[in-house]
TrEMBL record:
<protein>
    <submittedName>
        <fullName>Uncharacterized protein</fullName>
    </submittedName>
</protein>
Length: 99
């Protein structure tokens, strides 16, 4: 039972330290962003802002065709992307055929 209390106390200390480190990291990041904004360094400002909000990059996944198969050739991928976005645009802008 003594080990359980020791484990719990150590766990609380570790979690507290992690929260402190995360706050310090975020504060430092925002200071860098403020400095970049003051000097009109938009690249650094954008980079620090994106890091702070946690945006992820590189989520390019192929779009499956209507049967559910992934396209293998580049031309197939481009064709399927074109079809996919045309379908999306049709859904957003339905044509009134009763004109």
């Amino acid at each position: 039972m003594d080990f359980q209390k020791e484990y719990t106390a150590t766990d609380k200390k570790i979690k507290k330290r992690v929260r402190q480190d995360k706050r310090k990291w975020a504060d430092d990041l925002m200071k860098k962003a403020e400095e970049a904004a003051a000097t009109h360094n938009m690249r650094e400002l954008y980079k620090n802002t994106i890091l702070a909000i946690g945006r992820k990059y590189g989520n390019n996944q192929p779009i499956r065709n209507r049967i559910g198969v992934l396209p293998t050739a580049a031309e197939q991928h481009l064709e399927r992307s074109r079809e996919h976005y045309e379908d999306l645009l049709k859904d957003l802008n339905p044509k009134n055929e009763e004109k």
